[in-house]
Amino acid sequence: MKPESLMMSYGYKPELSEGSVKCPIFQTSTFVFKTAEAGKAFFEVAYGLRDKRKGEETGLIYSRINNPDLEILEARLTLWDEAEDCAVFESGMSAITTVLFEFLKPDDMLLISSPLYGGSDHFIKKILTKFGIHVVEFRVGQSKNDIVKIVESSGLAGKLALVYIETPANPTNDLIDIACSKEIADHFSTSNRPVYLAVDNTYMGPLWQHPLKHGADLVLYSATKYIGGHSDVIAGACLGSKALLKRVKALRTFLGNMPSPNTGWLLLRSLETLKARMDIQSANADKVVQFLNQHPLIEKVYFPGNLTAKDGVQYNIKIKQCLSNGGMISFDIKGGEKEAFKFLNSLKLIKLAVSLGSTESLAEHPATMTHVDVDAELRKKLSITSQMIRVSVGIENHEDIIADISQALDKSVNK
Ligand SMILES: *Cc1c(COP(=O)(O)O)cnc(C)c1O
Fold first, then answer.
1. In the predicted model, is pLDDT for residue 19 greater than 80?
2. Is there a single domain that holds both residue 377 and residue 398?
3. pTM of the full structure
4. How far is the CA of 415 from the centre of ligand 1 (A)?
């Protein structure tokens, strides 16, 4: 069966919960062991002292280690990416930072794509570097040869431990080739020093891009975005092989950054409508872009759906790895900050807020909001100007979204 058919049942046994159709919130910190022997066995497996025996059911211990809401959520999340295992976190940032801490140690080198989500960029450049981790970056649009040269000329090639990318890049929707990033990781891998590839897949969500299928070792999500989808919860997730997730989960146990049972339950509720919501968001985005493309007050639209064979490499990457054009649109309006702010202040249906992937449409101004922290020179190179608006398309009727954008555009040029 397809994942969307399994989101209401997978991993949950009603008979263990009084026949309740829906998984209850297991609001408990600790679990009763039937016997001391059972408690001993659960700890042996949870702490990795031995592997699970064939057919052995491991039990619940303590909600920092395991909890039914989190375990069922993790099982359901693996279905979309066809991953062996998943770990959920109390935020996207905690999923990302836990992976970076687990797969890097002092004097290692981390290769990143640029631009990255502001929080990831800050953590990598301002915090990881305090722990002696070397950071080297490449920009979207650079070829495999360019990137290999950047790594080699850094003089740190032998120290490369992790490649970390985000595609499509926020807010410009520039694409990075996942398979090519894996080739770069492999190029610098040795048998006793594997170089892993981690991909932040938040922008495409679990439906529209499957990085593990293109060679990524780990895929990361801010579950606050499409997965949660209702702007009412902060959470994160990491997916990959059982072997790598064992390491991620062990560090999570000791950092204690798992989500609460209530967050797990909210996300289970959200996952039931993930496909339905994302289908509508993608269809709406295509229609909004058709409107923007022909509007005289729009100078440029940044959207994977606008790529054609003429765009060469970017188009080829899209065909290879994107299953949809996504639900995120950026565009340059005529004028500058004044016109952009007038546009944002005139929106009636679309909310003026950061974040993305939710049921309601949201709009923001990257240059002064989400990307204000990005170095001004780099911002210019990335075409994040004062004219740029970013919209996350929701599930409202597309005609209402378009009418709202249309009336706000008219107001942006009026005195
Ligand atoms: C929001 C976001 C994050 C951070 O997630 P939180 O849930 O806010 O901690 C990371 N990466 C991307 C691409 C995001 O959009």
1. yes
2. yes
3. 0.96
4. 37
